[in-house]
């Protein structure tokens, strides 16, 4: 391999798990001679283990890592014998950035050590001992894993053969106080970040505090009365009203104002009932749409199952291969299961409706039910309005009595004149309300009479529906009986269609008579193929099923040895007769 070829140099560096010089990224080897030579004929394996850093190395595999010769400027590293076991290492301390390097040559200097190990990453400190070992501290934890890879290499300084210029390297994890302190600092920082993240998450998920309730005053009460009449602000206003009543803000002076606010809250009952009726109507429409969609799905399932049944008939079945038949059979069973499930769901919906009826009858019953509910709702609304007017009349009477008492106590001044005018106005409004109350009572009586008429019409339609159901059931039973009779006549009229079938029946009867314990369809088919190679097992089985008085099918064995066998039963019928 030419050392001047940049492509060959990049390939060699990638085989060692290194980034080539001049490319961005973390370099495993930065001080190697560009003129290094690689061993040819051996497929290189990337020595870099996955998940560098705090992740432990994966368990050893049966495939041995092939190490290669590494050339440096001042020394050469030779890999150990691949047949020898890999060098052992101690348990990795947390946050380890320091490695122990033993087996150094006696003449190795700190500059040579730095030249060899700076290819693994940035070195922050080297502590060399006089006893041929040293400690090297790297800048990052993943660099330690790259240094461990050099364990087991034999280091030779230059081209000397002296024992003082060679040694077998042993690289292992070292436990240093600085590494452990930095690791603890990182753990504490991560714990602080986790606590901060949890606090932010709790603050985000904490429900908001309820809004502050203002204190009662006549001005705030007037504003609240306007809010109670607004549908969009009703929920907020009713909360404030409830808080005021629970605080005890109701007294003789403010009773009428609170009564008017309670009356405004009561006026929303009719709106809520109308919304409820609207939602119920939407729910009924959704149920009807769901039932119609389910019926359409069931119809399509029926068509799919019909296609599969037509494919399994002999006319088309013989043209499919075994794999295609198996797939068609699996699809057919799956479609039948889905069809049955959809059918059961639809029948459950129909059972909930208590009876089956046509679309016209359903519409009539729905219309009668809707008219009944609307009349009941109108009657309830009129009753509520009647009660509210009666309560308002009582309130006005109380106000009149209070005004009379104040009139007796005070002198005849301008205030008394205005009170007299108010009294006259209240009397006029009272008279108008009495007249309105009478008209409402008349409307209520009319609605009650209409409700009774609707109930009578509903009972009449229900009786008519019952009669129609009985007629439909009778027609269905007669049709089913006629169909069963036609099927029985068709079954009796079936017989042997050709001389070939008669010959086959004779041969099969002789074969099964010789085998008194019966024979399965494959055994019978293999025997018949010797006589007629074009005959199929399905054709033989269909012929046997057409003659139940001559042939019968029995199951023998238990569990995995379960087998279907055909037996000749024609002589049994003769014996019994």
How would you portray this structure in words?
This protein has helices spanning 6-15, 110-117, 142-148, 177-205, 218-229, 234-247, 255-266, 268-311, 314-317, 322-352, 359-409, 414-493, 499-514, 521-529, 537-546, 570-576; strands at 70-71, 75-78, 98-102, 123-128, 133-138, 154-157, 166-168, 170-173, 551-556, 563-568. By secondary structure, the protein is an alpha+beta fold. The model is unreliable at 15-56 (pLDDT under 50).
Keywords:
oxidoreductase; 16 helices; RBD_domain_sf; 4-stranded antiparallel beta sheet; RNA-binding; 577 residues; 8% strand; 10 strands; flat; ENOX1/2_dom; single chain
How are helices and strands ordered from N to C? Answer: HEEEHEEHEEEHHHHHHHHHHHHEEH
- Discrete helix count: 16
What separation lies between the terminal Cα atoms?
A: 99 Å
Low-confidence parts lasting 5 or more residues at pLDDT below 50?
A: 15-56
Mean of all residue-level pLDDT scores: 79
Total count of strands:
10
Give me the Rg, rounded: 49 Å
Overall body shape: flat
Largest sheet: 4 strands, antiparallel
Sheet-strand content, in percent, reads 5-15%
In the sheet with the most strands, the strands line up as 1-2-6-7
Q: What structural class is derived from the secondary structure elements?
A: alpha+beta
Structural topology:
Layout: H1 6-15, E1 70-71, E2 75-78, E3 98-102, H2 110-117, E4 123-128, E5 133-138, H3 142-148, E6 154-157, E7 166-168, E8 170-173, H4 177-205, H5 218-229, H6 234-247, H7 255-266, H8 268-311, H9 314-317, H10 322-352, H11 359-409, H12 414-493, H13 499-514, H14 521-529, H15 537-546, E9 551-556, E10 563-568, H16 570-576
Antiparallel strand pairs: 1-2, 2-6, 3-5, 3-8, 4-5, 6-7, 9-10
């Amino acid at each position: 391999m030419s050392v001047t070829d940049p492509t060959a140099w990049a390939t060699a560096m990638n085989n060692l798990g290194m980034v080539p010089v001049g490319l961005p990224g973390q370099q495993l080897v930065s001080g190697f001679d560009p003129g290094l030579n690689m061993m040819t004929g051996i497929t290189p394996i990337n020595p870099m283990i996955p998940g560098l850093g705090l992740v432990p190395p994966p368990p050893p595999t049966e495939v041995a890592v092939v190490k290669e010769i590494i050339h440096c400027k001042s020394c050469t590293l030779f890999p150990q014998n691949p047949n020898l076991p890999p060098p052992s290492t101690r348990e990795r301390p947390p946050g380890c950035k320091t490695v122990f390097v033993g087996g150094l040559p006696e003449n190795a200097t700190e500059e040579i050590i730095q030249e060899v190990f700076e290819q693994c990453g940035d070195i922050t400190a080297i502590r060399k001992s006089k006893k041929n070992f040293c400690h090297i501290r790297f800048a990052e934890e993943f660099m330690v894993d790259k240094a461990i890879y050099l364990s087991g290499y034999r280091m030779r300084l230059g081209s000397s053969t002296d024992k003082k210029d060679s040694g077998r390297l042993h690289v292992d994890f070292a436990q240093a106080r600085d590494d452990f302190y930095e690791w603890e600092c990182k753990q504490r920082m991560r714990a602080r970040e986790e606590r901060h993240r949890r606090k932010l998450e709790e603050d985000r998920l904490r429900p908001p505090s309820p809004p502050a309730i203002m204190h009662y005053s006549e001005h705030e009460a007037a504003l609240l009365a306007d809010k109670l009449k607004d549908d969009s602000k009703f929920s907020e206003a009713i909360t404030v009203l409830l808080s005021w009543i629970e605080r005890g803000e109701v007294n003789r002076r403010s009773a009428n104002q609170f009564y008017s606010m309670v009356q405004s809250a009561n006026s929303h009952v009719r709106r809520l009932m109308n919304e409820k009726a609207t939602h119920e109507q939407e729910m009924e429409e959704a149920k009807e749409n769901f039932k119609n969609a389910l019926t359409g799905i069931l119809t399509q399932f029926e068509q799919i199952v019909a296609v599969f049944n037509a494919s399994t008939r002999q006319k088309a079945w013989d043209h499919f291969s075994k794999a295609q038949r198996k797939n068609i059979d699996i699809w057919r069973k799956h479609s039948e299961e889905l069809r049955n499930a959809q059918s059961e769901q639809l029948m459950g919906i129909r059972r909930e409706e208590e009876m089956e009826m046509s679309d016209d009858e359903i519409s009539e019953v729905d219309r009668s039910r809707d008219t009944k509910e609307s009349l009941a709702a109108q009657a309830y609304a009129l009753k509520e309005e009647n009660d509210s007017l009666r309560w308002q009349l009582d309130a006005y009477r109380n106000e009149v009595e209070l005004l009379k008492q104040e009139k007796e106590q005070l002198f005849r001044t301008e205030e008394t004149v205005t009170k007299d005018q108010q009294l006259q106005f209240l009397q006029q409004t009272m008279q108008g309300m009495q007249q309105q109350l009478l008209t409402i009572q008349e409307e209520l009586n009319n609605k009650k009479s209409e409700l009774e008429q609707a109930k009578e019409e509903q009972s009449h339609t229900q009786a008519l529906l019952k009669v129609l159901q009985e007629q439909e059931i009778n027609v269905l039973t007669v049709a089913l009986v006629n169909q069963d009779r036609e099927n029985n006549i068709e079954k009796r009229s079936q017989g042997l269609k050709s001389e070939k079938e008669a010959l086959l029946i004779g041969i099969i009867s002789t074969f099964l008579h010789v085998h008194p314990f019966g024979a399965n369809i494959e055994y019978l088919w293999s025997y018949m193929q010797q006589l007629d190679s074009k005959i199929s097992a399905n054709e033989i089985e269909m012929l046997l099923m057409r003659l139940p008085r001559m042939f019968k099918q029995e199951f023998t064995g238990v569990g995995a040895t379960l087998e279907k066998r055909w037996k000749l039963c024609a002589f049994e019928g003769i014996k019994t007769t």
